[in-house]
Amino acid sequence: MKILAIESSCDETAAAVVEDGRKILSNIVASQIEEHKKFGGVVPELASRRHCENILDVVKRSLADAECSLDDIDAFAVTYAPGLIGALLVGTSFAKGLAMATGKPLVPVHHIAGHIAANYLTDEALEPPYLCLVASGGHSHIIEVLGYTKYHVIGRTRDDAAGEAFDKAARVLGFPYPGGVHIDKAAQTGNPDTYTLPHPKISGCEFDFSFSGLKTAVINIAHNAEQKGVEINKNDLAAAFQKTVSEILVSRTISAAEQFGYKTVALAGGVSANSSVRNLLEKECKKKGFRLYMPALYLCGDNAAMIGCQAYYDYLAGRRADESLNAVATLSLDEIST
Fold it and tell me: What are the tens digits of pLDDT across the range 170-190?
């Protein structure tokens, strides 16, 4: 079964053709990073306009790379939630048009479920149930993956997501957008023990995250140094920040795995490309005897191959959409669990 998938939840216009859920025939991503970099972050209206300009070419290229025509496609899939509403509407509208014009099924896919599914494309041995840490620019979740379409969220961020905190900390340190990759690079030559940063916790919710206070601590250190005319070591502060975020994400994931009885752990989302997060999670899982699965680096960020993979399992579960499908900016994974 060949699925043509579309992803446009933020600032990447992506399309891919995936066969039988696990084989990538094509995976095209048109990035807008250079355009948004000058603003220090994604401008939603600008992102939506660029999606409108890019989506036809991206879909055509995905079909060409897969050596397919629309006649060869068995179903269409699209990210419909969550994300920037204008951006989502572009992909959703285009996918609905394809489905209506061809008379073929349309499968609506949850963005976070797609990130989780990136692991299936990397390692065919992974099967539910397992515990997954999803960390990205807009999301930080600890999720029980009970089945290919069944989830239970046991931990989530209460304010900033991990990736968002990376971008905001990077901005105050003078690094360009997107900040995560620059902090990771700077941290390689920094001393993480030069600065002591807080490990915020949510009272009564041991698996939830809060990164706002950590981000503010970095901002305060930088601003206080500037006011005193003291030069901070950006690499050291970047290393301390990255180490702290990694410790927070990994420690709660490992604790959740132990409490809920999981021996298999997975990582997903844009922050899953961070070297410190990957290394620390691998170290702690090895120490506990857990099996660990992580997506290939090229599948960590937003892409349509992960959407096509998840769509295959959603299709088998009977999920379909018609012309009434609408984009949804905020939607918990619990709400679509089947």
Answer: 999 999 988 899 999 999 999
Contacts of 115 (CB under 8 A, 6+ apart): 134, 136, 139, 268, 269, 306
d(CA 198, CA 218): 10
Domains of the chain: 2-116+299-336 (3.30.420.40), 129-297 (3.30.420.40)
Query: Radius of gyration of the chain from Cα atoms?
Result: 20
Burial of 180 (0-12, 13-18, 19+ CB in 10 A): buried
Lookup: tokens for 293:
């699965």
Per the confidence metrics, is the pTM higher than 0.85?
A: yes
In sequence order, what are the beta bridge partners of 156? 141
DSSP assigned state of 301: S
In order of 33, 76, 176, the CA distances from 166 in angstroms are 16, 34, 11
Cα 13-16-21 angle, rounded to 5 deg:
135
User: What is the sign, positive or negative, of the torsion defined by CA atoms of 108, 113, 115, 117?
Assistant: negative
- Can the peptide bond before residue 200 be classed as cis, meaning omega within 30 degrees of 0? no
